Amino acid sequence: MSKILFVMTGVDYWTLADGTRHPTGFWAEEAVAPYEAFRAAGHEVVVATPGGVVPTVDKGSLAPEVNGGQEGADRIANALASIVELQQPIKLEEVDLDDYAAVFYPGGHGPMEDLAVNADSGRLLTLALDSGKPLGVVCHAPAALLAATREAGGNAFAGYRVSAFTNAEETQAGLADKAKWLLQDRLVEAGVDFQEGEPWAPKVVVDRNLVTGQNPSSSAPLAAELLKKLG
């Protein structure tokens, strides 16, 4: 049984362009679907956050309208409540990559606030990329890639094919005009080869050991790709 590291946001807000705090955290499906897939395959999951704080779920991600109705919403809430690892996170600052077979970053708007500028996360991502270990990042979590810079300059993920939450999706979600910056724009500026699919449809991109997904519906197929890489 291998250990898979979940690196998650430690904040419950996202600062908008006007300075107000938009309540957020991590997106439920993006933690639950991969967690269930990894556990079903016999792997152990360890959660890490900046400072070891217990991660906050984005309440919006528990709503019936994003879970296919009330039954789906109840299922995701119950599944989330059963993930004991979420209540016992380790400190991101103390993570040793050698302890893990793979690394996974679930999204939500939280990573736009903290992981996008977190140097410890940036170092871990660079190490994971260079190690050849399976590295999965979904939806808004690719914001964390922005902190992965090489000592010689430039982003560690420059030239990699990456998918992430798109400008079109942020616009349709009603937050694009309120954001300080848009994830797709920043990733392109960092030099990644951004892969954009249809809004809200599953899209997973594999480039070497890096597996990225565009949106919440991409989290389950992304987990399947990571499991393939784990063999």
UniProtKB/TrEMBL annotation:
InterPro entries: Class_I_gatase-like (IPR029062), DJ-1/PfpI (IPR002818), Prot/Nucl_acid_deglycase (IPR050325). Pfam families: DJ-1_PfpI. Signal peptide: none annotated. Keywords: Glutamine amidotransferase. Residues 28-228 form the DJ-1/PfpI domain. The keyword Ubl conjugation does not apply. SUPFAM superfamilies: Class I glutamine amidotransferase-like. One of its GO terms (molecular function) is glyoxalase III activity. GO terms for cellular component: cytoplasm. One of its GO terms (biological process) is methylglyoxal catabolic process to D-lactate via S-lactoyl-glutathione. This is Type 1 glutamine amidotransferase domain-containing protein. It comes from Streptomyces sp. R41.
